[in-house]
Amino acid sequence: MTVTPTSGTVHPMPHQIAYTDASLALRDVYALAAVVNGVTVTATARAHTTQQAELQAARLAVQHANPGPLHLYVDCLATAHVLTGLARSKSPLTEPAQELLQLAAERGVALHVQWIPRGENAAHHPAHHTAGHMRTHRRARRVHLPPLPPQTPGLVVRLRHHPDGTSARGGGLRAVAHGPLAALRILIDLAGRAPPGVRVRVRGVPPYAAHLWTHPEHAPDDLLASLSAARCALALRGSRLHLMTP
């Protein structure tokens, strides 16, 4: 874990401000970042999904906050919903969220959570930069963190590419898309129709579509909103898309 002062000496304040974010470094290893009262804190953690990693980043902020009110800004709707009681009770994010709220209560931190667009999140750049540094130097392969428990196998969907578009079929799911980024549009469609609590293996995903799914900040503006909403809806239902490139 590293702590980097970004705005001089930090003094206790009645109302604190924190921003948090998580970025995938390699496979199930994420870079976490929290900017708490002008101080940037980074760490690494394992998680099955980005939404689980986002909660760990929020926990990082609580751990480094002073007692008192803390206004926490996040760019993941699933994190905001589960920390404000809007998520369904059986969400896999519910238990870690309750543990985070319990930690905040024990430390005397009164948590106020608000969603903001990714472009306004001060923690996005340090999380993204740290993840990129880990990938560049292959550090993620040597992270000394306990392995994750295996998830229950789920459905298998295959993408097939045709001259006039892309189709997907398998596990009772079907989808068709045409035009640029058809594969990404299918992933968004599958995310909206995947059953609760399952992992959907999607075979034949083009590398660029897989990259945009895991890094929605790089997606075109016309797909960014639907992509972010699909990812958050998937997390709230406790499901996951496992993308398999050719």
TrEMBL record:
Any one GO molecular function term: nucleic acid binding
Protein name, UniProt field: Reverse transcriptase-like protein
